[in-house]
Model the fold of this input.
Amino acid sequence: MEAPTQTPTPAPARPALGSLTMLWRFARRYPARIAAALLALILSSGATLAIPNGFRLVIDKGFMGGGDIGRWFEYLLLIVIVLAVASAFRFYFVSWLGERVVADIRSATQANLLQQAPRFFEDNRPSEIASRMTADTAIVEQVVGSTVSVALRNMVTGLGGLIYLFALAPKLAGLLLLGIPVILLALVSLGRQVRKYSRASQDRLADIGSTTAEVLGAMKIVQAFGQEAREAARFDATVERGFATARQRIRLRALMTALAFTLVFGSITGVMWLGAIDVAAGRLSGGSIAAFVLTGGLVAGAFGSLSESWGDLLRGAGAASRLHELMNARAEIVPPARPQPLVEGVEGVRLTFDNVHFHYPTRPDQAALNGVTLDVQPGETVAVVGPSGAGKSTLIQLALRFYDPDSGSVRLNGVALPDASPAQLRGMMAIVPQDSIIFAASARDNLRYGRWNATDADIWAAARAANAEAFLRALPDGLDTYLGEGGARLSGGQRQRVSIARALLRDAPLLLLDEATSALDAESERLVQDALGRLMRHRTTIVIAHRLATIRAADRIVVLDEGQIVEQGNHTSLVAQGGLYARLANLQFQDIAAV
Done:
């Protein structure tokens, strides 16, 4: 089933090119480069406009005037050299600005995304965000590194050319000028529609990237269930939607270009006709009409090309607005203005849930926690069990302050979590999740993610305690071995032991174990349980577990059902009560006995 495309809350409507102001905010950090680019642009445009005057001098003073014709050709050659050098410098500086602005935008966007709470990524698919960070920034790079420069050059050339045309033949230039408002009106009118389709085209491109990432990431499931043909058809449908939108945008841009060139060159042709009559009547020299024709062609080309530049700028504005939404998305979980310090007690930390009610934003009609009160004492190991969907993992999500409760409070050592710095709060916790996250990096970098300044001696000590040393030393390059995307070079049990070693390096007083052994075989589970036993010593620990055999030795077992605590006690007392825990234990231990 195809997931609907979801995007961040749209920003207020902006003028057609209003989103490009964001690009200017980044570009103006480099005033020297901008000044150099503008200087080169002015020189290149000036040299371009000087070429018709050079031909006028060659004709009037060289051919017609009987003077030294070589002198005027040398003048013309000098103009060409200036044009070539200035164009090269313009290309370098504007391309540098384009690359630099895109790099800054990507960094700023990623920095803001790293501050977002998990809810943001529930509403906005990471694969679509990745598309924005690549496809949209590529368009922005084109706009900053090429389109803006070309548009400015055409404007300078067009306006400068008009001034020169008035100097040569005011009457003809005035007639030519009458057509410009008509051209601009047509461009602005069609431009609004182009901008709408440009943004829609980028959305469809993001869908293509998202679908590609989703299917390729689940290729084993796709092939195992024989869904290759259906996924190919689904991808084709996504591509076709993108093509249909792009086709609408292309049609409008083609119409803009045709209309602009027709109006511009039609005006030029009519004016040249009148100019030819003036030359025949002796009111204009041959050199002047030649210069007027060449300059008129340059002006026509400049204003005609503005239609294409306008379309590119509108497309860039659409891409910039999408990036602007990501860059300016407000984080829901923010540190308070004056955070209260979290101080670890002599015996450890205490975690308290006081009448907590919570609904996930994506499931507002279903309570994940409904009036939960739980007091985890310093150094205590509390196991949380219950059916799937009972709210077990939600306790960890709230403890890490990935979400805030709808009502009630969560406290660490008496400090309400919203009153503390999220960074300091999470610095006092270490988590071993059910699905181990292994980055596409070296074994060393994955291990020291818990404490980045850890030495190799610290890393090996943690690996030894996590029963991971043997397989890590057997890797081809030891700690320098690249583990592949998602830890593809490791087994499930090995990945989990890397997670435990990472948590050991963290050396935090509060340990959160979320189904840390649920997906392991018996041998891997034994090794992981042995490592967890060392990790849990002298720490306050919350253990989320489905396998009851792994938590029988917990100081306290809390049973959750439908978001409420229904039982508490140790294994023996809970079995004796004959309630939900007893039924779960009876089922699991019967299965074990049957095996």
Remarks:
- Confidence is low (pLDDT under 50) at residues 1-15, 591-595.
- Residues 20-327 form a domain with the ABC transporter transmembrane region fold fold (CATH 1.20.1560.10).
- The longest helix spans residues 228-280.
- The first strand starts at residue 351 and ends at 359.
